[in-house]
Design brief:
The protein is built from 5 helices and no strands. It is an all-alpha fold.
Amino acid sequence: MKRVAEFVKERRKEAGLTQEAFAERVGVALTVVRKIEQGKTNLNMDKVNLVLKMFGHELAAVSTKELTSSES
């Protein structure tokens, strides 16, 4: 989550938005933006994807099997 946290924070600042203004624009609670930027791991993936969509990105679940087979 650290990479996501840094990505969101950097892009939000580049857009010249406060956490509050960004949350309002995305349509999520301010606490969601704060938790993402703090690197919290117990977040709702739908909310994270709403935030990431603002920058043209999305997270998807990956199974352990997929990770193992891609390392081969």
